[in-house]
Amino acid sequence: MTGAKFVSGQSSVVSCKSHGPPTTDHGQTAHIHYHITADQICVLTFDRPGSTANIFDRATLSELNEHLDRIANGPRLSGLVLTSGKPSIFIAGADLRGLADWLKHPAQSVSDLHSFIELGQSVFNRLASLMIPTVAAIHGACLGGGFEVCLACDYRLASPDRTTKIGLPETQLGILPAWGGSTRLPRLIGLPKALEVILAGKTLAPRQALRRGMVDDLIPREHLLKAASHLVHQGKPHRSTHPFVNNRLVASAISIWLRRKLLVKTRGHYPAPLKALETATKGITRPLAESLAVEREALVELARTEACRNLVQVFFLQERAKKLSGDALARLQPAGKSPGHQPSSAEISRDHPVKRVAVVGAGVMGAGIAQWLSARQLPVILRDINVEQVAHGMANIACRYHEGLKHHIFTQLEVRQGLDRIYPAAREVPLAKVDLVIEAAVEKIAVKKEIFRRLDELSSPGAILATNTSALSITEIAGSTKKPARVIGLHFFNPVHRMQLVEVVLGRETDPAIAQRAVRFVQQLGKLPLLVKDSPGFLVNRILLPYLMEAGYLFEAGASVEDIDAAMLDFGMPMGPLRLIDEVGVDVAQHVAETLAAYFTDRMRTPRLLSAMLEAGLLGSKSGRGFYLHDGPKNSVRWNPETHRFRRADSASGLDREKLQRRMVLLMVNEAARCLEEQIIAGPADVDFGMIMGTGFAPFRGGPLRFSDSAGADKLVEEMSRLVAAGAPQFEPCGLLKNMAAEKGRFYEEGRGLSVKPDA
User: Fold this and answer.
1) Within a domain: residue 269?
2) 566 and 595 housed in the same domain
3) 509, 582: one domain
4) CA nearest 507: which of 476, 482, 536?
5) DSSP code of 94?
6) For 496-508, how does the pLDDT look when each residue is reduced to its tens digit (9 = 90+)?
7) CATH number, domain containing residue 579
8) Are residue 45 and residue 121 in the same domain, yes or no?
9) Contact 736, 682 (CB under 8 A)
10) Pairing of the two strands 628-629 and 638-639
11) What is the pLDDT of residue 342?
C-alpha cells in the first residue's frame, strides 16, 4: 500500500455529473473523473487536483467506493477501466504522511492505521467482486497501493514507456503490501515469482513486469484505452490457480528455505521481508478474507518497529532531495561568502537549462557519467588525452548499455540512440555551445587546475564548470580560472548507474545561482543532490575514510580480515570495510586517505600496509588481488593469505567482533558530528542522508547521528574517552559530542518520531 503519501481525513460526499468532472460537497474538484463511453464502458480517471501525482488517501478511497456504488447500482455497464490523467504517474500508492504521524504517536493512532488499511482492503474487494470485466490501463509509476488496486482488476495493461514503473516497494519502507498485494500477487503469478517481487520491494520496468505475468500486455500509451475496451468485450478471464506451487506443502518448504536465506542476507536487522514471507506463505492456502486479515495485522506490527521509523525517514529525505531548492542553499552558504541575491524558482526556470554537456576524462567515472547523461537524452562530448583513452571509455559505455539491454532496462533502439548522443574527442573541441562541463580526470590537483584554466578559455561565460573530484579543494581548483564563481563540485559516486547521491560542493566563490542550476541539473538526471561546503573529503569521504583507515590499522594490529568485515556486516553495512577498499581500489583509498591526513594531522593518518600492498601489486579487485582474491565467480571472493605479511602487531588479535565494530562505528559517529559542528552541512538529517545514500550506512539505523541518539551521546563519549586513555588519540570526541553528552542532548530533538517533515 506504500507510495508517495498516506493521510487520514474525512470522507467526501461526491456528486458525479456526466457533463463534467465530479466535485466534492465543498466545491473542490474530485480526485477521480467518471465517464461512460458509447459502448457502455465506465472509465474512471484518477487525476488529483493541484498535484503531479495520484495517491490513495482516505478521501480518494471513499470517492472510489462511491463510484463503485454507482457502477454496482446503476444501469448495466459493459465493463470498467481505470486510468490516470497524469503524464508520468498512474497511482504512486498510499499517502505516507499519515503513517509518519502515526510513527510519532503510535499509542494514539493504532486504530486510525488499522481502519485505514481496512478501508483500502474493503474498497479493493468491492472492485474485485464486480460482475463486469475490469481493466487497469497503466501509464506511469504504478507502485504499492497503486499496483494493488490493479491487482483487484481482471486485466492489467501497461505502456512500455520509461516512465512506467510497476511494483510493490513496501518492504523498502519496513512494511509490507497490505491492500491485497501479499494475497493477490501470489494467486496471480504463483507464490515463488510473487515472493521475488514482494520480499525485495522490487520496482520493475514494463517488460520485466510482463515477463513475470504482473501485466497482461504492453500497449503504447495512445492505444491503452482502445486495447482495454477490447479486453472488456472478451469478458472475464480464466486464469491458472498455480496448483503446483500455491499449496500448503510448497508454501511451507519455500518459507523454511527463504527464511534461512533472508536471515543470512539481512542478519535479522530488517523484519519486513521476514514478516512478508510469513504473511504470503500463510495466506496462499487460506480464504481471501483470512489472508487479508493476516496482512492487516502484519503491517500494524511492522509499523511499531524502529526499522520502519528509520526507513520511512530515509524515504522522506529522498523526496526532499528531489525537491531541493534555494531555501536549502540559503541555509548553507560557503565560508566567507555572503548570501547575496538568491534567485527565485521563477528566475531559475527562466535561466537556460542544461542541454549540452562535456565530460573531460574517459576513465571509469567519466565514462559512467557520460553514459548516464546520454541515457537521459543529453548530448555529451567525451574528451580525453588520446584515442586509446577515449576508445576505452566508449567501450565501457557500450558495455553498460548492453548490460542494460540484457536486463530489459533499455531497448535496442534506446541503446543505439544513447550511443549516438556521445561525441568522442581525443583533441580539443569547441565548447562554446556547452552548458556544463564535468571534469573527471586523474585526482591530481595540478592536473585539474590546468584543465580548468583551459576550460575557462574554451567555454562560454555562462557555462558551469564542475569537477567530479572526491576530496580535492573546489576553491583551489576554481582559483585557476578567471571566473571562480561558476566553478562547483559535482561528486558522483561509483558506480554511477547505481548510486543515486551526488554531492553538490560549494567553493568559497561559487555563485548561488550556479549552485541552484547545478542542483536542478542533478535532479534532471534523476539523482539526489546533497549540498555541502568545500572541505577536505566533503561529507561522505570525510566520514568514511577514518572508518576505512581504522579497519586497516586493526588488520595491521592482528585482527583478521574475516572478523573485521563480518563485524561491520553484522552492524548492517552492505560490505565490510576491507572488501570496500578492494572494490574502490587500494590506490584510490590511499590517495584519498593521504589527502585528508594532510589536512587533519591531529587524528588522521594512513596505515602503512596500503603502501606495502601497492608495492606488492595488490590493488584490489582491479588487479584480482587485495585483501581478498577476486579470481572466482562473480561476487565470490576469499581472503588473500599474502596480506598476512603486512601485519605489524597482535594487539587487536584478541578483540572480538563487537569490540572491532564499536571502534569503527565510533569514528564515523565522531566525524559525522564534527562535520555538523563545522557547519559544512546544513543539519543532522543531511549528514545521515548522505551517509546512507553514499555509503549504504545501515538504513535501518537511520544514519550515524540517529544511531548516536539511539545509543546515547553520553555513552559514546565515555567509550571514546576510554579508548583515548588507552593510547588511541584518533577517538578524541569532538566538542559538539562532548557538549551533547554533558547536556544529555540529541541530534533529533523530536526523539522517537520523524525529524523531517514529509512536505519538506
Assistant:
1) yes
2) yes
3) no
4) 476
5) B
6) 999 999 999 999 9
7) 1.10.1040.50
8) yes
9) no
10) antiparallel
11) 39
The answer to whether residues 701 and 310 touch, using CB atoms and an 8 Å cutoff, is yes
Domain end residue (candidates: 502, 533, 564): 533
435 & 415 share domain: yes
Q: What is the CATH number of the domain that holds 266?
A: 3.90.226.10
**Domain finish residue from 282, 302, 322:** 302
- 3-state DSSP call for residue 582? helix
Q: What is the mean pLDDT of residues 455-468?
A: 96
Say whether pLDDT at 338 is over 70.
Answer: no
Cα dihedral across residues 442, 446, 448, 450: positive or negative: negative
Q: Which amino acid is residue 173, in one-letter code? A: L
- pLDDT surpasses 60 at 22: no
- Look up residue 362 and give its amino acid: A
Domain around 713: 541-743
Distance CA(189)–CA(193), nearest Å, equals: 6
Q: Which residues, including other chains, have CB under 8 Å from residue 431's CB and lie 6 or more apart?
A: 358, 381, 437, 455, 458, 459, 460, 463
497 in helix, strand or coil? coil
The number of folded domains in the chain is 3
Distance, CA of 405 to CA of 409 (rounded, Å): 6
What is the sign of the dihedral through the CA atoms of 111, 112, 117 and 122?
A: positive
| Residue 433 is assigned to a structural domain of this protein | yes
Residues 6+ apart with CB under 8 A from 567: 576, 657, 658, 660, 661, 664
User: Are both 340 and 290 inside the same structural domain?
Assistant: no
- pLDDT of 337 higher than 90: no
The whole-angstrom distance between residue 260's C-alpha and the CA centroid of its chain comes to 26
Question: Residue 488's beta-bridge partner residues?
Answer: 466
- Looking at residue 104, its amino acid is K
Give the other-Cβ count within 10 Å of 395's Cβ. 12
Residue 8: inside a domain, yes or no?
no
Confidence bin at 409 (pLDDT 50/70/90): confident
Identify which has the larger pLDDT, 110 or 411.
411
Cell reading at 63: 470517492
Mean pLDDT rounded to a whole number for the chain: 90
CATH number for 391? 3.40.50.720
Residues carrying an active site annotation? 491
pLDDT above 80 for 517: yes
The per-residue pLDDT for 118 is: 96
Length of the chain: 760
- The number of helix segments (H) and strand segments (E) in the chain equals 30, 22
Q: Are residues 516 and 599 in the same domain?
A: no
For residue 412, tell me if it sits in a domain. yes
Residues contacting 714, CB < 8 A, separation 6+: 740, 741, 742, 744
Examine the domain organization and report whether 480 and 580 are in the same domain. no
Same domain, 350 and 409: yes
Indicate the residue type of 662: R
The mean pLDDT of 282-302, rounded to a whole number, is: 96
SS3 of 648-684: the string is: CCCCCCCCCHHHHHHHHHHHHHHHHHHHHHCCCCCCH
